[in-house]
Amino acid sequence: MSATGSELSGHVVIVVGAGPAGMALAKKMADAGHEVIILNRDIKFGGLAEYGIFPSKLKLRGGLKKQYWDMLEQPNVRYFGNVSVGEGKDLTVEDLRGLGASAIAFSIGAQGTKAIGVEGDSAMGVFHAKDVVYHFNRLPGFGDRPFDMRKHVAIIGVGDVMVDIAHWLIRYKKVERVTAIARRGPAERKYNPKEIRAVCAHMDRAGIEQEFARIKDRLVAVGQNPDEVLAGMTSEFTKCEQTGSPSKMDFRFLASPKRVLVDANNRVRALEMEDNKLEPKGDDTAAVGLKRYYEFPVDSVVFAVGDRVDETVGLPYKNGVYVTNPNKTGNDPDDALFQAYDEKSGMIIDGLFLAGWARKASEGLVGIAKRDGDWCAEVINRYLAVNTSRSGTAMDDIIGRLQTVLKARKSQPVDLDGLRILEAVEKTHPGSPDAIGEFKFASNADMLAHVERGRG
Fold first, then answer.
1. Is the bond leading into 333 cis (omega within 30 degrees of zero)?
2. How far is 425 from 55, CA to CA, in rounded Å?
3. What is 115-305's CATH number, 3.50.50.60, 3.30.390.10, 3.40.50.300, 3.30.420.110?
4. Which of 41, 69, 71, 170 is the most buried (most CB within 10 A)?
């Protein structure tokens, strides 16, 4: 469905960010008859769907890409890639608010990295999950970075991101061993059983049984049956993918990294770990340190413990998240959850909304992000229905103002025609032997050069 000129609402909505949340939001806005301007930091759209899904999942990525292309080709949608928003960037939040749009929605993901804050976390051999994922997905600026992992890699965290990184380490880096480290126990593991199939052929079954023996008394203490938990965990190791790699994988439970220990060259040599016990916490459990410490030798550490938003964007920010309205409205979905809020004035920022990981960092993957974009669209539609006076500035006028600012900032936006040029090049490119899945350009400069030649 797309709106014709006679069906347009008179509202222009700016969506900042073209990941799953932003694209879902933009589609709902366009289908509702609003004119939509999408501004995206990356040249290519997709966000998590382009640079977060494991690159060999071609069917999933292809399906999403087709949906996004269909939406971008609607006549009431305009796309500007390679446009960043924030302090010292192509545009500021105030620039956007001055363009005259009826509403602005930020769906820019969580571009900051949550620091675990342990001594030695800046040593050589310490990596953050987002950087690793961007690397094997070849996000420009990350694809060609060296990631020297060596033999034994510890991944802190036991969610789906851990599985993707373990998959890459096992299948493509062929490291000797991957150990996933969890503060809590095996019953509290967070990964999807279907995702573990990518690496379960490499599970060190004997090592996992030894790990259960090591922690069994602490599981029993909170009413968990170690044998049942082990059986439930290993029963998920079915339909395992064969990779041809010699790597082994195991787990270390009830363990918190306290320090990264380094050698004389400031290279990781081990983690200092603290033993934990479990304590009931409502319907869940919490990890509590026992003040028993030991060294766990590893060559590299990847922290997969979540993300925080980018505090330099210029939105109200506190404790790693953008601030939303604390005053619930009772609507479904609740408007307050999506409204940007200024705590200093105690007021919502009129016409400014948040969706996806920008609203709730690291909450779910593509499906959850899309749902959040859909919910945000409902909230914005309610807002526009009440605030009819927000309409009036024509799309062409807003685009003209936007282009004037971008030109003054010497920005190089890429529109839909530019994306078509890149798509055509990608389809004919043989790729490189170290890339996983489809060919991707290594740098923005390379993409911009192809766009310029294509426009010739």
1. yes
2. 19
3. 3.50.50.60
4. 170
